[in-house]
Amino acid sequence: MAFESKDKATAYWRENISLLLKLLTVWFVVSFGCGILLVDVLNEFRFFGFKLGFWFAQQGSIYVFVALIFVYVQQMLKLDRKYNVEEE
Amino acid sequence: MDIQTLTLLIVGASFLLYIGIAIWARAGSTQDFYVAGGGVHPVANGMATAADWMSAASFISMAGLISFMGYDGGVYLMGWTGGYVLLALCLAPYLRKFGKFTVPDFVGDRYYSQLARTVAVVCAIFVSFTYVAGQMRGVGVVFSRFLEVDITTGVIIGMGVVFFYAVLGGMKGITYTQVAQYCVLIFAYIVPAVFISLMMTGHVFPQLGFGATVTGSETYLLDKLDGLSTELGFNEYTNGSKSMVDVFFITAALMVGTAGLPHVIVRFFTVPKVRDARKSAGWALLFIAVLYTTAPAIGAFARVNMIETINGPESTGTAYAEAPSWITNWEKTGLIKWEDKNQDGKMFYSGDERNEMKVDRDIIVLANPEIANLPNWVIALVAAGGVAAALSTSAGLLLVISTSVSHDLLKRNLMPQITDRQELFYARLAAAVAIVIAGYLGINPPGFVAQVVAFAFGLAASSFFPAIIMGIFSKKMNKEGAIAGMLSGITFTALYIIYFKFINPAANVPENWFFGISPEGIGTLGMILNFVVAIAVNKATGDAPEEVQEMVESIRFPKGAGGAQAH
User: Fold this and answer.
1) 68-87 in A: which are within 8 Å (CB) of B?
2) What's B463's DSSP letter?
3) Considering A37, B302, B324, B554, which has the largest number of Cβ atoms within 10 A of its Cβ?
4) DSSP symbols for B527-545
5) Tens of pLDDT along B134-146?
6) What is the structure's pLDDT at B567?
7) Contact: A23, B85; criterion CB under 8 Å
8) Where does chain A show beta strands of DSSP type E?
C-alpha cells in the first residue's frame, strides 16, 4: 500500500475526482456551451472582428483546452505531493 | 527553378532526414519496438503525438472543409482538440501507470478475459486499417500533383518509405522521425498562412488577422465574407447550416473518438513517468493547437481570395482568357471545372443558378499558396508538409496493426510459446502485409474513404472509450458488463452507419435520422448505449473479483510506476 492509510487513499481519489469534474465543467462550457448551445446568443456580441460565439467555436475553445491540461498537470503534482504518492 | 525541381529537392531532403533518423534509432528489442523503452522526453513525445494525430486529412483537407462549411467546420476544430482534454485527464496517466504495451492489453487484463482482449484487438485493427488506407491515398495525391507522376507510382513511393522506417525502426525510430515530421509539417503550414495574413490584413499572426479589418478598408474580414456569402446565395459564413443537435453530437463523437483511438493512446506508454504522460498530452495539444487555430484563418482567407479571383473585384466574373495559372493547373487534375453556362466567356462562382464553377474542397490548402501568388519554394514546402503528415500518421497506425497482430493476437492468444525474436519478426511481417493491403486500397480506393473515416471514429467512440473509462473509474465493472457494452455499442453504431452510408444512401437525410443525428454523430449515441448496457449487465451479474479491484486501485496514483512491463 503506497498510502499511509485506507482513508488517505479514499481522500486522494475524492480530491482527484473533484478536480476532474471542475476542469471538465470548464471544458464543456467553452465548447458545447459557448461554441454550440449558446452560439446564437453570444453572436450578438463582438470580440474584435469576430462574433463571440463563432470565435469560441473556432478559436477560443482550443486555447482554453490547452490551458486546462497544463492546469491539471500542476494541480495533480500538488495533490501527489500532499499525499506523498509522487514518483521517486 | 521550377516548381517540380524544387518539390523534388525539398521532399527529397526531408526523406533523407527521416530515413537517417530511422537508421540511427533502430529498434533492438521488443521493448524498443513497441514503446521506445519508455524513454522519450515529454516535449518530444508531445511533438510525435501531434504528428501522429495530424494526418493527411488534417493537413490537406481540414482548412478546405472549414472554408466551405464556415461555422459548421468548428465541429472538427473542437472535436479533434477537445478529445485531447479527455485523453489527458481521464486516460493517459492511468494507462501509463498500468504499464503494459497496448490498449487490448489493458482491456484484457482489466476485464480478466481473453474474449474482451479479442474484441479489443479486432476493433483496434479495424479502426487502424480504415485510417491507413486514406493516408496512402493522401501521399499518392500529393506526389501525383507535384511530381507529375500517376497516382499508382505516387502510392508505391509512399509505401516504400513507410515500410522502411516503420518496419525497421519500430516505435523508437518512429517517435524521433515523427518529431522531425512535425517540424516539417507545421513550418509548411504556417509559412503560407503568415504570408497571406500579412497581405490581406497586415497581421503577422493568422489567428489575429482572421478577426481584423481587410487592408485598405474599414470592413472586418469576416463581415466582408458574410456579405459576399449571402450576396452569392450561400449561407452566412459565421452561421453555417447544420442543426444544433447534429453539431452537438458530431462534436461529441469526434472528441470521444479521438480519446479512443488506439494509435494515439499508445503514445502515452512511451514516456518514462506518469507525470510525463500528463505533461505529454498537454504538449501534444499545444503543438496541435498551432495548426488547428491557423486552419480556420486559412479557410476564411482562402474563401475570400478564391471568390475575388474568380468573380473579380466588381463581382461580375473574370474572363476565362485571363484566368490565373492555378485555375488552369488544377483544371488538369479535374478538381476544378468551369462550364460557361451563359456563354459570356467569364467565370462566375456562386451558391445559386448563376454558378459556373466546380471547386473541390480538398485543393484549398495545396492551391492556397498559388492563389495568393506566393513564391515557388513555398508551394514545394507545402507538398513536403502534406507528405510528412501522411507518412507520420500511417507509420503510427501500422505500428498499432503490427503490435495488435504479433503481441495481442499471437503472443497473448494463439502462440504463447514464441520467443521475443519471433514476436519481433511477426510484428515486422504484419506491418509489411498491412502496408501492401493499405497500398492496394490507396491505388484502388473503394470509393468511400471519407465515409470510412466517420466509421472509424464512431467505432472508437462506441467501443474503447467507455470500456477504458469504466475500467479506471468504476472498480466494480466486470467482464460481462464490459463485453456486452462494447458489443452493443459497436453493433448499434456500425448498423446505423452501414444502413445510411452503404445500404440506403438515398435515405441519408435529416428527416430519417434518429433525433436528427447524422451518421457522423451517431458514435455518441453508441457510446451512451455502451455505458447503459454495461452498467445494467454489471448490476445483474455481480462485481469484479477482489484482485482486479485492487489492481484498479493501484493504477489510480503515480507512485511505483516502473517502465512499461514486459510479460
Assistant:
1) 68-70, 72-73, 76-77, 80, 83-87
2) T
3) B302
4) HHHHHHHHHHHHHHH-PPP
5) 777 777 777 777 6
6) 37
7) yes
8) 46-47, 50-51
Q: Does A21 touch chain B if contact means CB atoms closer than 8 Å?
A: no
Instruction: Work out the minimum CA distance from B552 to partner chain A, whole angstroms.
Output: 12
Three-state SS across B396-462? HHHHHHHHHHHHHHHHHHHCCCCCHHHHHHHHHHHHHHHHHHHHHHHHCCCCCHHHHHHHHHHHHHH
* Cα–Cα dist B227/B232, whole Å: 9
CA-CA distance, B10 to B85, in Å (whole number)? 35
d(CA B268, CA B280): 7
**For chain A, what are the domain ranges?**
8-82
Confidence of residue B170 (pLDDT cuts 50, 70, 90): low
Q: How many domains does chain B have?
A: 1
Q: Is B480 inside a domain boundary?
A: yes
Residue B330 domain-assigned (yes or no): no
What whole-number distance in Å separates Cα of residue B412 and Cα of residue A73?
A: 34
- What residues of chain A lie within 8 A of the CB of B203, using their CB? none
Give me the sign of the Cα torsion angle B273, B277, B280, B282.
negative
Q: Is A85's CB within 8 Å of B282's CB?
A: no
Residue B354 lies in a domain: no
Considering the domain boundaries, does residue B119 fall inside one? yes
Q: Answer yes or no: are the C-beta atoms of B246 and B516 closer than 8 Å.
A: yes
DSSP string, B284-311: HHHHHHHHHHHHHHHHHHHHHHHHHHHH
CATH of the domain at B176: 1.20.1730.10
Residue span of the structural domain in which B205 resides: 3-307+372-554
The complex's ipTM works out to: 0.93
Asked if B244's CB is within 8 angstroms of A37's CB, the reply is yes
Q: Distance between CA B251 and CA B74 in Å, rounded?
A: 8
pLDDT at B394: 79
Quick one: what percent of chain B has pLDDT higher than 70?
A: 92
**Nearest-neighbour CA in chain A from B36: distance (Å):** 20
- Read off the amino acid at residue B525: L
In this complex, which of A68, A77, A85 lies closest to B559 when CB atoms are compared? Answer: A85
Asked if A72 and B278 come within 8 Å (Cβ–Cβ), the reply is yes
Q: What angle do CA B7, B398, B264 make, to 5 degrees?
A: 95
Q: Are B482 and B534 in contact, with CB atoms under 8 Å apart?
A: yes
Provide Rg for chain A, Cα atoms.
18
pLDDT for the residue numbered A21: 96
Start-end of H helices in B232-374 = 244-260, 262-265, 274-311, 325-333, 364-371
Mutation for B interface: A12, A25, A62, most B CBs within 10 A? A62
Q: Residues of B with CB below 8 A from A37's CB?
A: 244, 248
